Amino acid sequence: MIDACACPPSFRSADAEADLVRDGFTLVPALAGTQCDLLARSYRELAGEPGSEGALEIDYLRADRSVMSDVRNLVLPLITEVIDEHLVGHRMVFATFVTKNPHADSNMFLHEDRSWVDERRYRAGTLWIPLVDTSEAIGNGALEVIPRSHLLGTYWSGAGTPDMIRPYDEWLRQFLLPLTVDAGDAVFYDSRTLHASSMNCTSKPRVALVCGVIPNQAQLLHVTAPGTRRRRLYAVDEAFFVRYGPRVAELAMPNQYQVIEEIVDDATLTPAMLAAWSRTPAPLPRVIVPASARPAQQWAHLTPDSQRVPTSVVVDGAIPLPSCCRLMYGVATACGAEKDVIVSLDPAACFELDPSAAFFGGFMVAVLDAAPVGAGVAVGSAAANLEPGQRFEFDMEPVTVWNEGPGQLRLLIGARSEVVASAPRSVAKVAGRLKRLVTRPAATANRVMQRIHHQAIPTFSRAPRRAAQEFAKLNEP
Questions:
Q1: Of 175, 176, 328, 411, which has the highest C-beta tally within 10 A?
Q2: Which of 209, 211, 241 is nearest to 100 (CA)?
Q3: Domains of the chain
Q4: Predicted TM-score of the model (pTM)
Q5: What is the Cβ-side half-sphere exposure of residue 80, based on CA atoms within 13 angstroms?
Q6: 125-130 and 319-320 beta bridge pairing
Q7: What's the burial of 323, exposed, middle or buried (CB within 10 Å: 0-12/13-18/19+)?
């Protein structure tokens, strides 16, 4: 990604541009009061009365996509005038009304908007225009932003990408700034700026128009996450957001949209980065444990070993584990292996490892590949989110492992005494044991992996040729 100051200018006003670059948002006049009233009546004619869709009604999420088309046609002339008045060479790419009904569940969680452009070159933004006065004092769910939080957005945000801020959500909320915005005025914020809103405590709906805005020369994008760190950038058009809701696009991209680039997103968000940004101490990341894996509770931090595992051992496949299974007598024994084995777990899945009688003296779990934030392990009252290269040692307690994605979680599980000491030796050991596993008469092709592949042998400091030879043997008849 790029530094926010390196983007081409967005605003004609030097003051508005300075606010945007420094704080990640700015306020500008947009619609007159009479325009707001007319827009509100016209919207109700095409969308119906508020309250039918729940506490929060967002056109972008509707199954009936005709509403998105009608909204675009309704607001495009007005918003184009606002954009041309305040911005330099920008266009509206989608529009949605957000109706916050009087309801205890009408709050909006803390989040950033998705990456709509190549943020290595351009800045995308959002116009947020309430049709009624909004403020913390009124209590109708004012927009809240975290100033300067756009400087934290060094990662791609899209369909299925990791929610990088979630482990720090509670800590970050102390920096939220509620905005007082009159009806018809607009907040323009960088799409990377973190924002939220509280619930509507009044007796009337709070309606706001939200428009995505990008530079004219920028290609409109939709970003997906096919792997733990792999990101696909699709070139899309304005019709994409009209025809397809986010849930549909997350399942499969329509054929008419092509991938223009595949990248590896190695961005992280650490306490050190947050401390430097906020100039205050930042906490350790909160462990995100899905309810499907363990009941909600306060979790102590589970600390990995100081020894790191060579993550250059990359497997194309591994023994797949079914979701929500309990593996008795150890994963290795249950799968027909000897003492260690590589396993994979698909997104939205979890398993419990019961080591009883499998590993005398305990066992170890080494992380070969895991998505940021999305994968974790829990034992007793302690838990940790998993990162590639980590190694944990456990006694004889049952261990729960989960993977929320994106991509597969891949682990090496074995006896505690079998330490992954050197990369070539580890490669040979894993290769040999997996070869014995896949050649057992009882093993079938659909249960075990038939080959593994080493993609980064030159990164090993010792015996790269020997390691390559061990892997090559797996393809022998």
A1: 411
A2: 209
A3: 4-277 (2.60.120.620), 300-473 (2.60.120.10)
A4: 0.82
A5: 7
A6: unpaired
A7: middle
